[in-house]
Amino acid sequence: MSNHTALLFYSDSFLFDTDTVVIESEEDDLGPYVATQATVFYPGGGGQEPDKGVLVTPDDETHPILQAIWTGGEMRHYTDTLLGRKDAVRIQIDAEHRHRNEKLHTGGHLLASLVFEKLQWPLRPVKGFHYQQGAYVEFEPTAQGPEPDTILLDQALTEAIRQQLPVESFTVTTPEDPRYRAAFKPEGFIPPENQPLRLVKIGSYMACPCGGTHLHHTGELSWLRVRHIKHKKGRIRISYEAG
Hints:
By secondary structure, the protein is α+β, with helices and mostly antiparallel strands. The protein folds into 2 domains: 6-93, Elongation Factor Tu (Ef-tu), domain 3 (Beta Barrel); 98-242, Threonyl-tRNA Synthetase, Chain A, domain 2 (2-Layer Sandwich). Helix content is 19%, strand content 37%. The chain contains 4 helices and 16 strands. The strands form 4 sheets. It has a 7-stranded antiparallel sheet. The longest helix is centred in the middle third of the chain and has 24 residues, at 95-118. It is elongated, with a radius of gyration of 19 Å. The N and C termini lie far apart (41 Å).
């Protein structure tokens, strides 16, 4: 058995539980952890908060997953117990929490694409924060121009939901891949080491590097709207909410 965890949330972000086996269970500076052959638990990163979930043993003992860290090709689920190698275990996540995160993450990508490509305002997206506590996309002005128009942006968001634009994700093996070279990348972006180089694309808009979870199409958003727009240290932050 290879000490490598299959990241099932990349192939199916609507898979909320899986039966798997333990490949390693030890204790490090962060506490006891259980690494498994497969997982549905997204550890967080890329502007998206981590999943909430539990490990369930065959005798129905439930152990909360306190955090998860991807390291050395395996996902370590930090919990309150150690298990034996090859033990059976079930990983379950909070489906509602995941789905809210998917809506916010997809919504953030869509908002950035509409501002930069459809509306063509002189704003370049530089940061996305898709947490439930207050999601926003931050832009850097590239030229003098009028203030972003909340009404126009809300109309564009509503139309993109109506169009049910497909959300695609794919992995490239090298930064020399033409799909990666054509993708939108924040200035100074460095491809991650020892992780898949994954791109996400909405409709005909430019793909961008992203390791998070997403909806299948924009029509799975019930609504997406701007909360407020403010200037912050020479940048423009557009806060939004999704449901």
